[in-house]
Amino acid sequence: MTLKDLHKSISELGSTPLMPMLFVGHGSPMNAVEDNEFSRMWTSLGAQLPTPRAIVCISAHWETKGTHVTIGNPLETIHDFYGFPNELYRQKYPSPGSPSLAQEVIDNIQSTHVKGDDQWGLDHGTWTILKYTYPLANIPVIQISIDHDKDAQWHYNLGKELAFLRSKGVLVIGSGNMIHNLRIMRITGNDFNAEYGYDWAFELNDILKNKLIDGDDLSLINYRSLHKDAELAIPTPEHYIPMLYVLGLRNKDEKVRFFNDKVIAASLNMTSFIVRE
């Protein structure tokens, strides 16, 4: 994409083959400065995926009342965490935004009023991944917020309204963690990323993968019925909901391929997947 193209709307650029989609377990912000199995896989994804015209990310770390979309250009790199090494706070991901793409999202979503937001930038659910996948930071990126007042079915349905993006060369990424309970984390030894977890975390990780393979979206929407300890695994929904946007966009004949499939820190899973034809 050229600088001239950045000022065009996605609809003006014509159709493309259907883009893949990602759900990424982003885990600790430290992945942004560590050479580990997760960050190496994110680098590998950049070589596997077609180069997108733009990227739309739904991150667990932008919750709002109502639905918002970033309209700024450029977008600030947000360091939305505390207590980490200074090296992490020095990280920048200076990708362009795309006000024109944001406006197309606003225009195409009919079920709710979407507001443009010129204050939010890229939070760590977005830039810590893209730093590796698209390190040149030369692809326009926007974020769509999570309305914290809406339920799982509502977010799944909203995902369906973003279907136009996939045939316009836009990569949609959901960023969160399917299992995410920081209050009861435990670490084995000194390795945060070592495979280690409560029995229910491993059990639920397998259940989630099987439901994804089977295309059983209804069970995944009603996730509290998946396991007796589902409320321990998902005490709040914001890290789970980004996956529902990806599922809402998936066609019935599309397969999922898992990567970074691992339970760590006792109550966190990094399990991620790519959806493609």
Structure description:
The strands form four sheets. The protein has a six-stranded mixed sheet, sandwiched between helices. The chain has a two-stranded parallel sheet with strand order 3-7. It has a two-stranded parallel sheet with strand order 4-5. α6 runs parallel beside α10. The N terminus is likely disordered. The two termini are 24 Å apart. The chain is 30% helix and 17% strand. It is of the alpha/beta class and 277 residues long. β10 and β11 form a beta hairpin. It is globular. 45% of the residues are buried. The protein contains ten helices and twelve strands.
Number of DSSP E strands: 12
User: Helical stretch count?
Assistant: 10
Spatial gap, N to C terminus: 24 Å
Shape: globular
Main beta sheet, described?
A: 6 strands, mixed
Instruction: Sketch the topology as an H/E string, one letter per element.
Output: HEHEEEHHEHEEHEHHHHEEEE
Strand content: 15-25%
Global structural class:
alpha/beta
**Averaged pLDDT, please?**
95
- What is the radius of gyration computed over CA atoms, rounded to a whole number of angstroms? 18 Å
Going across the major beta sheet, what is the strand order?
6-2-8-1-12-9
Please give a quick description of this structure.
Helices cover 30% and strands 17% of the residues. The chain has 277 residues and is α/β, with parallel strands linked by helices. The longest helix is centred in the C-terminal third of the chain and has 16 residues, at 199-214.
Per-chain topology:
Elements: H1 3-6, E1 21-25, H2 37-48, E2 54-59, E3 63-64, E4 67-70, H3 86-89, H4 99-108, E5 114-117, H5 124-133, E6 141-143, E7 146-147, H6 152-160, E8 170-176, H7 199-214, H8 217-221, H9 230-233, H10 241-249, E9 255-259, E10 263-264, E11 268-269, E12 272-276
Helix pairs in contact: 2-5, 6-10
